[in-house]
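pinging the channel bc i need a second pair of eyes. not urgent but kinda urgent?? the chain im working w is below, pasted from the shared doc
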Amino acid sequence: MKKIGFLSFGHWSESRHSRVRSASDALLQSIELAVAAEEAGADGAYFRVHHFARQLASPFPLLAAAAARTSTIELGTGVIDMRYENPLYMAEDAGAADLISGGRLQLGISRGSPEQVVDGFRYFGHVPREGSTDAEMAREHTEVFLEALKGEGFAQPNPRPMFANPPGLLRLEPYAPGLRDRIWWGAGSRATAEWTAEQGLNLMSSTLLTEDTGVPFHRLQAEQIQRYRDAWAAAGHEREPRVSVSRSIFPIVNDLDRQLFWHERHSTDQVGMLDGGNARFGRTYADEPDKLVAELAEDEAIAAADTLLLTVPNQLGVEYNAHVIESVLTHLAPELGWR
């Protein structure tokens, strides 16, 4: 049994082929897709975060708005780039959104991927310490963020406050119980997955790994997941961790599906360069349902994960993407034992 959700980048463009023409369209349609996905029986609505791009950026207003329109679906990110974040302010935003959702937030965070501008985090006022890297700064921000989510007091109260304080050191408000256990780290390598387990974070693995050993993507990702689980057990954490993988999956069940994705039937892994090193990108799954069932049954990483995020082509609009999600839930999930 798996939780099945969608992951949207929230692209928007003025192209005549796009049904998402503006930032307003991207935000409002993201909310509508979360509503439609919940109605279809999906378990999660996740949104990518990219700065300086015609995509979704600041996630918390969107998450709170989607929370107010839904009641059961998990709401999350995949992922927030921690190089850009003020971790204490982020803890307040996350706490508020989680309380609005009734404890449904699932936040994916990470060092982030290559961005649209050079060292964009510097424009946000964040500069690595001397002798430190931007990746190390992201982990430092994460440490502060996770500590704040514990809800423990750390700030010295004013002896003459405007309002009466509770006794002792003060914590950030609002505090969202349980949110610390619902934070995920987007890991692009096997070593990072092991670090993620040591920190007590859930694992979010996408259709990209920043390394290549020559084996198929799904097998390399399955190894990453196993290393994560082994490191989690060695760390002695009490709760069970969660692991998600992302896939582009398009069951071809009507003429429009065939027109849009028939050419992807023979998609394969791709190997390229990212940040100066080898990277392996996962394939797209597109075919008639019976053939997809056979292909997806061989995907070792999906089998190893408890959560599957469907990357959706959001510029095709809410109606079509809701159709894709429903097709996976109806035509594939029961046959594969996911439901």
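so Residues 3-336 form a domain with the TIM Barrel fold (CATH 3.20.20.30). and Residues 7 and 62 are 14 Å apart (CA to CA). — does that match what u expected or am i reading it wrong
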